[in-house]
Amino acid sequence: AIATSFGLHFVILYVPFFAGLFGVAPISFDEWTAVIAFSFPIIIIDEILKFVSRNSRKAPAAVARAKKQR
């Protein structure tokens, strides 16, 4: 399904008839660079938040287990 989706997107972007029909155009290398530059910090922040969230949930469980073992 993912490969089909990618394939259809490429057809719509790069086949002139479909690009005109949908009113789209492929973006340039400079535009891709801007997209990556703006997206990368967001991805890093999201990964840090996931890391903190996963590790903060483990601490209360560990404390509860330690109390049960006493």
Task: Characterize the structure shown.
The structure is a single chain. With 70 residues, the protein is mainly alpha-helical. Helices cover 87% and strands 0% of the residues. The protein has helices spanning 2-14, 16-22, 29-69. α1 crosses α2. The mean pLDDT is 87.
Q: Main sheet? A: none
Q: Proportion of β residues?
A: under 5%
One letter per element, helices H and strands E, the order comes to HHH
Integer-rounded radius of gyration: 23 Å
Mean pLDDT: 87
Total strand count, please? 0
Relative helix content: over 70%
Low-pLDDT stretches are: none
Which structural class do you get from the secondary structure elements? Answer: mainly alpha
Taking the alpha carbons of the first and last residues, their distance comes to 52 Å
DSSP helix count? 3
Can you tell me the overall shape? elongated
Short description:
With 70 residues, the chain is mainly α. The chain is 87% helix and 0% strand.
List keywords for this structure.
single chain; mainly alpha; 70 residues; 87% helix; 0% strand
